[in-house]
Amino acid sequence: METKEIKALIQAVDASSLQQFVFKNEDLEIVMSKLETDALNAKGIDQAASSVDVLAAEKAGQAEATSAPDPAAEEATKEEESFSGQVVTSPIVGVVYLAPGPDRDPYVSLGQTIQAGETVCIVEAMKIMNEIPAECSGTISQILVKDGEVVEYGQPLFEIS
Prior knowledge:
Blueprint: H1 3-15, E1 20-24, E2 29-33, H2 42-59, H3 71-81, E3 86-89, E4 94-97, E5 113-114, E6 119-125, E7 128-133, E8 138-143, E9 150-151, E10 156-160
Antiparallel strand pairs: 1-2, 3-10, 4-6, 4-9, 5-8, 6-7, 8-10
């Protein structure tokens, strides 16, 4: 990942409603959080963006990674485009839980009518449970993940029609 891409990622997360963001590949791990208890806040994000240049300079001696398109990401994009309703996607990488506990009923079920802002599932990332709200009102027409499944950033979770 190049310096420009990292800076753009920092700015995108800062401008979004995400509270936390985790990116990990073979050579790089990026963790960003907007939680007040964390070191990264609005001022810290600017400092992090400027320190990206320092990190890039340190890595300049290492071999450059090729920027090949990710087939899984392309497939997820194609799948999302084929939905007829609104798609709820995962805002972070983590483990999805469809119910608040192992012996509890799921947050939503197929055919259930929901309201905008209603919790549809939880995505656990770094031992933090992140409630995922519906972005619109409607009926759950598809549940696209299984309980306990690892999900990626941007992966479709539900379709609401």
